[in-house]
Amino acid sequence: MAVKKSELYSSLWESCDKLRGGMDASQYKDYVLVMLFIKYVSDKYAGQPFAPITIPPGASFDDMVKLKGKMEIGDRINKEIIAPLAEANQLVGTITVADFDSAEKLGSPKTKRDTLTELIAVFENPDLDFSKNKADDDDILGDAYEFLMRHFATESGKSKGQFYTPSEVSRILARILQIPKSKHNGETMIYDPTCGSGSLLLKVATETNNKATVFGQEKDVANAGLARMNMVLHGNAAAVRNIKTGDTISEPQFKVNPTQLKQFDYIVANPPFSTKNWSSGIEPENDEFDRFELGIPPEKNGDYAFLLHMLRSLERNGKAAVILPHGVLFRGHAEESIRMNLVKKGFIKGVIGLPANLFYGTGIPACIILMDKEGAADRKHIFMMDASKGFIKDGNKNRLREQDLHKIVAVFNAEKELDKYSRKVSIEEIEKNEYNLNIPRYINTQEDEDIQDLHAHLNGGIPVRDIDALNNYWNVYPSLRVVLFEKRNEHYVDLKVDKFKIKETIYGHEEFKAYSKQFNDLLDAWQNDTAALLREQGKDCKPKELISQIGEDLLLRFSDIALVNKYDVYQHLMDYWNDIMQDDLYVIASDGWEIGKVPGRKIKSTKNKGVVTHKPIEGIEGIESKLISSELLIEKYFKTEYQAILDKEAKTEEVKAKMEELEEENNGDNGDTFQDCRGGKGAITKGALETCIKDNKDKESFKVELKIWNEYLDLFKEEAKIKNEAKEERKKLEKLVWEKYKTLSMDEIQQIVLDLKWLGNVKAAINTEMESISQRLTTRIKELGERYDTKLGDLASDTQSLESKVSEHLQKMGLVWS
Q1: For residue 406, with 0-12 CB atoms within 10 Å meaning exposed, 13-18 middle and 19 or more buried, which class applies?
Q2: What SS3 string covers 548-569?
Q3: How does pLDDT run across 638-684, given as a tens digit for each residue?
Q4: Spatial distance between the Cα atoms of 189 and 380, rounded to a whole number of angstroms
Q5: By the 8 A CB rule, do 9 and 122 touch?
Q6: Closest CA to 374 of 345, 341, 352, 351
Q7: Which strand (E) or helix (H) includes residue 778?
Q8: Average pLDDT for 436-442
Q9: Is 385 helix (H, G, I), strand (E, B) or coil?
């Protein structure tokens, strides 16, 4: 079976747990990634001639497994596994970064042996067999690497998290470059002068269907090693030789001769922000590569040094996308001069303002600058975008959502002007602003103020301007406005309906019903067409291409419907894709729809130190399946049987409530009737109760107690009877579920997955947008109605009346009111 992403991520993070404590994330990431690398290349290439990675005899993951439990395990991993593998593939310095025999990091010999044995066991999991992963184009290992990098960066903290550019930002840079995919293999050259772990560079390569040749340079030796491993794990082993180590500014590694830099078609970079010693080792005034002709950056701030290096490294019509701190757009002195020269020469094509706190090395806001040499001499404007407000909180960082990413790319590439979001700014306007590119100078993103109307507070009525501000609704429901409001005068209206009936009025209006039908018809048509497309998928389908097609179709269909933000609709699909659907399609791509009839294995609720690790469905023993769960089969075929179990369990709770009530009624001021019927922990037990009844059944003085005890005993017996019946019915249902798995037809499997699991859930999520539309209108109208419901004059009169009443009461009480 194929490896599921969720299972892989869980296993990888479990491997991290084995290493926490003795070292921080910036250190233990090396061990986990080396282990992942060895497991992956062993599964994919061991015993295969002409493979891109050579696995020497005795140096595979299987050979590592044989070392489990041995006291010399760490030393032998270093010498017998890692060293031969590194030497055979020119990976010395890449996979040799982690010392598996380190007492400092792994502890005493016994602790080291146990830790490494447990670590190997995690990767030994049968579910992590990468040789069976057929969806290579979907890059499951590359995505797993990204998962680890993101978590390592989060745990490493500010000083050590700069090796990773968030995946969402990387994808933006990759897509705004608009690299043609039609070129031959290797023809397009892509370069990252500060490549870190290589994630940004590889995101761009993916946009070319991995046909491009990639080049990267990284100052930090360990991070360069991560980048080389990343290339292999992304199926781009040939790129390992193109990842160089060294300081890009003082020691550029890619040159055609001693004084000329190699030039590339596309460049991407996320340089370290505001490097203070960028000029160490060079004389910028006499730079041998002529990188600083447009100006020399300030000595203690190297942001423009990296940008100018990239500009010099671009071929004649090349394009570069670089992430820089927001300050490069407006800082003065030397940077102002460089910025002016860049704008005058037309090299800057666009600027995108990003949210603050996106990056792991810093919390300051950043921007993306797109440089384009093609057409630079004739450039008349710079396209600017303020995307700083589109994000969600993710722990202590902000993160771009799928909808934010898609909107940025679509709007930027089309240079579409949107109010408070994006616009084309002429070079003349920028010149008038002294070449200051600070985005707020050109795009006003401030929300309109909700103005209080003093006249309305004094005299009543709702300002017409506030009702006009809801014109996007009145364009859809034109006659609803007349139903809700009546004209008071030219500038004010009154609410015609009770404020508690506003929602009812909106929902009952024919225009609202017609709009709801339009929304639902649109969604139904998308669901039907998408279901038909998904039914055609099978082994070797391409999940990432598929979700792109489905998502674009959804965006297109909701582009022209009023009141709906198509990107909010799109986000619902992408959330479900990331959480559930992509895992399922990876399985289908590997094993086909037939995997749906494989029930897997039974799993029971287990506890580990009081923590429940699996909770089956409401008493039904769980079934671990790759595609269809027992819950889905019950929902589809056994609702009646399951409801009968729930009814019995509800009846059990009713009986328990009667027992508690009976106990409470007879445990008061006159004593506890059940005092002698309690067990060791103070609870009434069946055995103790029966003993009380037996010992006192012939005693007239216990006549009342015996009646109560027998009533309680009957409830005990009723509870036990219902519990046993429910238990038997659970067993029967479990058997029905297991038998159904075996007889599922292909049509049934697809129907369950498509209707119940995938599209049914996506549709339900998208339908919340319809509810939000009506709720926003209802809330605003009610707010305005309540705001001006009571006139200030009436309020003053009411206050005066209340004061008079209070004064009257005080006088009657003999008190003086002043």
Answers
A1: buried
A2: HHHHHHHHHHCCCCCCCCHHHH
A3: 999 999 999 999 999 999 999 999 989 888 777 888 888 888 788 89
A4: 28
A5: no
A6: 345
A7: helix 759-787
A8: 96
A9: strand
